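Ligand: zinc ion. Inputs:
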Amino acid sequence: MTEKAATLTKVTRTVFGTRPAHVHLDPDTAQKWECNSPYCTEIELPHPDNGGPTPVVQGYEPWRR
Ligand SMILES: [Zn+2]
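Predicted complex:
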């Protein structure tokens, strides 16, 4: 443990582009996390890394593919 790079926790990205983000509250961990999917309807939502659904990114909607 001599060379320690900046600790970077790998988490699923939930903010894409310049669309304004909103803050979710994870009901299990009480953690707040930002996301800017236009399709969210619930504020209380687990983070994708904590069992929540992956937010849909505008322009990459699975139903458009
Ligand atoms: Zn959201």
